[in-house]
Every structure is written in structure tokens, then in C-alpha cells.
């Protein structure tokens, strides 16, 4: 489902189903064994997706464990991103020779709970969302903003290993071309020898879901 918003040099595996039986490596099972059923399900199915994607890259199956801040730890030479929400689980992967970082996010196309937009949106973003909701009411642009910011964080984190707050990036969403940008309001990471101050991504609304994806290419990739 997420493939249309990805470049050709990454691979994606996603599903609306659940794959649970015998799907985890023992070290993954150890991490999730005390979690509630919902968490076990999303963690497990996302790992099945991640291993499908590894296979597409020609890599052997491997355990995907969380790092200290929850980031997925990929096998050497691989980078990627995981997302799960009600009705969707997905993983997008690339090789480090072609991809510097990936951030994907999926959300239901539903309004954010009361108060969340005020908490995550800068004044300029809130004005944008108000206008977009008026002009294109079938899409929940408040949720899209959240989704875009989550994918910014997921692609930022492996580059710098640091927290990035919702107030640290100013997101602009193009409602017609299916793209968004995030201007970092803190010092951007160095990627391919250059400072990266704007992350750009693509979005898609399909089957009641909002999907966002940021793929930051490595210098060597043929685009
Ligand atoms: C970590 C976070 C982004 C996860 O997003 P979410 O919408 O809650 O959940 P999703 O299902 O989409 O994604 C969960 C996956 O994110 C990945 N993830 C978690 N922490 C991560 C990190 N620090 N870096 C990259 N990926 C991370 C994991 O793979 C996780 O799945 P898993 O635990 O099964 O491996 C979110 O909970 C969070 O902490 N956000 C605050 C930071 C932020 O978004 N800042 C905005 C900057 S503009």
C-alpha cells in the first residue's frame, strides 16, 4: 500500500492482516513477552513485514530489536523504518549504500483527539491545517501533520541519535502534489557531507489510512 510514495531504491512490505504464530526470534520474544496483546500483535506482524523486506533486499532473516530510544536496530548495511496503527503494519528498508535514513508513519484518517493539534502544531502549522480542512475536508490534515512529524522523527533519529520535539520542525503540506516538507528549527544533521535542514516526504490517503514516508538518499544512489 505504501509503495506508491517510495522511491525505487527501497523495498516495502506491509499488510492489513496479522501474522503471529512462531514469527519471532527468541530475543524478540523476550522483549515482548510481558506486553499487552495489542502490542504483541503490532510488534510481531511488523517483524514479519521487516523480514519480508530483508528478503527482498537479498538479506537473511534477522531479529529486529529496539535500541535504547525504541529505534529499530537493523542488520549491518541496512536501514529502515517501521510503523503500525489499527489496520496497518509496515516496514520500509534500503541498503546503507543507497539510503541514509527512512521514516514512515501510518495513522487512521480521523481527527486528532482534542488538544493534540495545539500540543504538536506550531501557530503557522495550525493556520495551514485550518485552511486545508476547509478546502479539502475529506482528509484529516491535523492527523496528516502528526503523521508527517512522526516520520520526520523516525528519519532524523538514526542520523543524530537525539530527541527532536514537535516544535523543532515546521511542516508544510502540499494538498495537491502529495508531498510535504519539514524545515528543521534546530541544527540539521550532516548527510552526505552537507547540512540537511529540510526533510521532504510524500503522503498518501487510502482505505481510511494516512501514510507518510521520508527517504533520505545516500550520496551514491542513482535517483
Ligand atoms: C517513536 C514514535 C515516533 C513512534 O511513532 P508512533 O506513531 O507512536 O508509532 P508507530 O507505530 O508509527 O511507530 C512505532 C515504531 O517506531 C519505531 N521507532 C520507535 N522509536 C524510534 C526512534 N527513536 N527512531 C526511529 N524509529 C523509532 C519502532 O520501530 C516502532 O515499532 P516497534 O516498537 O514495533 O519496533 C513516537 O511514539 C514518538 O515518540 N514521537 C515523539 C517524537 C516526535 O515525533 N517528534 C516530532 C519531530 S518533528
Q: How many helix segments?
A: 5
Could you say how many structural domains there are in total? 1
CATH class: Alpha Beta
- Would you identify the regions where 5 or more consecutive residues have pLDDT less than 50? none
Helix-strand makeup class: alpha+beta
What general outline do the C-alpha atoms trace? globular
Percentage of residues in helical conformation: 25-40%
Order of helices and strands: EHHEEEEEHHHEEEEEE
State mean pLDDT (0 to 100 scale): 96
- Describe the largest sheet: 5 strands, antiparallel
Question: How would you concisely characterize the structure shown here?
Answer:
With 223 residues, this protein is an alpha+beta fold. It is built from 5 helices and 12 strands. It has a single domain (1-223), classed as Ribosomal Protein L22, Chain A, CATH 3.90.470.20.
Which helices and strands appear, and what pairs or packs with what?
Layout: E1 11-15, H1 26-32, H2 37-56, E2 65-66, E3 72-73, E4 78-85, E5 88-95, E6 99-108, H3 116-120, H4 123-135, H5 141-160, E7 169-174, E8 179-184, E9 190-191, E10 194-195, E11 198-206, E12 209-217
The structure holds coenzyme A.
Report on this structure.
The chain has one domain (1-223): Ribosomal Protein L22, Chain A (Alpha-Beta Complex), CATH 3.90.470.20. It has helices spanning 26-32, 37-56, 116-120, 123-135, 141-160; strands spanning 11-15, 65-66, 72-73, 78-85, 88-95, 99-108, 169-174, 179-184, 190-191, 194-195, 198-206, 209-217. With 223 residues, the chain is α+β, with helices and mostly antiparallel strands. The chain is 29% helix and 31% strand. The strands form four sheets. The protein has a five-stranded antiparallel sheet with strand order 6-12-11-8-7. Bound molecules: coenzyme A. Residues 43, 46, 66, 69-72, 82-85, 105, 149-150, 152-154, 157, 164-166, 168-169 line the site of coenzyme A. Coenzyme A (COA) binds next to helix 2, strand 4 and helix 5.
Amino acid at each position: 500500500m505504501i509503495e506508491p510514495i517510495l522511491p525505487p531504491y527501497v523495498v516495502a512490505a506491509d499488510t492489513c492482516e496479522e501474522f503471529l504464530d512462531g514469527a519471532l526470534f527468541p530475543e524478540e520474544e523476550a522483549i515482548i513477552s510481558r506486553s499487552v496483546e495489542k502490542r504483541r500483535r503490532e510488534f510481531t506482524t511488523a517483524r514479519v513485514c521487516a523480514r519480508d523486506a530483508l528478503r527482498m533486499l537479498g538479506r537473511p532473516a534477522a531479529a529486529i530489536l529496539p535500541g535504547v530510544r525504541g529505534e529499530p536496530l537493523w542488520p549491518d548495511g541496512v536501514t529502515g523504518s517501521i510503523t503500525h496503527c489499527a489496520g496497518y503494519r509496515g516496514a520500509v528498508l534500503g541498503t546503507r549504500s543507497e539510503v541514509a535514513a527512512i521514516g514512515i508513519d501510518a495513522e487512521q484518517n480521523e481527527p486528532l483527539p482534542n488538544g493534540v493539534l495545539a500540543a504538536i502544531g506550531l501557530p503557522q502549522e495550525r493556520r495551514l491545517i485550518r485552511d486545508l480542512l476547509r478546502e479539502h475536508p475529506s482528509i484529516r490534515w491535523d492527523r496528516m501533520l502528526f503523521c508527517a512529524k512522526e516520520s520526520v522523527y523516525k528519519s532524523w533519529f538514526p542520523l543524530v541519535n537525539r530527541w527532536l520535539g514537535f516544535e523543532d520542525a515546521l511542516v508544510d503540506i502540499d494538498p495537491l502534489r502529495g508531498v510535504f516538507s519539514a524545515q528543521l528549527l534546530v541544527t540539521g544533521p550532516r548527510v552526505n557531507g552537507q547540512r540537511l535542514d529540510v526533510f521532504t516526504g510524500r503522503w498518501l490517503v487510502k482505505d481510511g489510512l494516512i501514510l507518510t514516508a521520508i527517504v533520505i538518499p545516500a550520496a551514491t544512489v542513482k535517483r
